[in-house]
């Protein structure tokens, strides 16, 4: 089995790279490097980049990449039906990849050997005094206003016409495990599934890939992790003051428990901040939840499943 270490980066095309750079810096990334046709954005973690903006006449999703454990995983991947050979990445940071396509025709790159970089300092997570546990004694909370510093790319959400084919592919090819399934009437009638990495006994995010049934195949959003809820809310305020277009939030999801806020980038794509998500390992059981607005969030601004997924004009 191919061993996936984590999701590594996404690539999107944008007509205006200057606008994309301004947005993603306010969103909480920083520019690793730039040329006439690409901007490479990094987080505070050690990945050389987590988002690539590519110059184009139109806005579109290009690919997503998962980092594998070692080069032997690339060799295994190259032997799969429809896989490319191992290719050198002609990008800053170097490395190699094998390119696959999921059943919806999306480009999936498995990567290895991309350079790592030094971590950048983030504000330490705030310590909270709760009603029955006082942990912060004689210390003040004064986080500053500014972008919600992003640590890493956390997950991607995909609309798919054929849920079963995509679910089977991500389980069988990438070894992902279902954390929660959104069903209607019975466990065999799934409309959405949240898939996590298989890291054995190690704890990993509730989901790295989310799939939901849609009339057309598309990418719904890419999601990026920030330090804590204060960073998220202050970052939300920063984005509004800078004039960017909000989609939804701040709120807390039900499945995965993440606190979230969603934004439209200048090209109309949706991106998310998240923090405080649930962690699972390979022994965690799969949950089955009846679909409906209550399965979408615990609290936050009013939102319907249909509007959130773009299935309705309401």
From TrEMBL:
Span of domain VOC: 6-113, 152-276
Keyword entries, A-Z: Metal-binding
Cross-referenced Pfam families: Glyoxalase (PF00903)
PROSITE patterns: VOC
Keyword Cell inner membrane on entry: no
InterPro entries, per database record: Glyas_Bleomycin-R_OHBP_Dase, Glyas_Fos-R_dOase_dom, MMCE/EMCE_epimerase, VOC_core
Full protein name: Bleomycin resistance protein
Gene source species: Billgrantia campisalis
Species classification: Bacteria, Pseudomonadati, Pseudomonadota, Gammaproteobacteria, Oceanospirillales
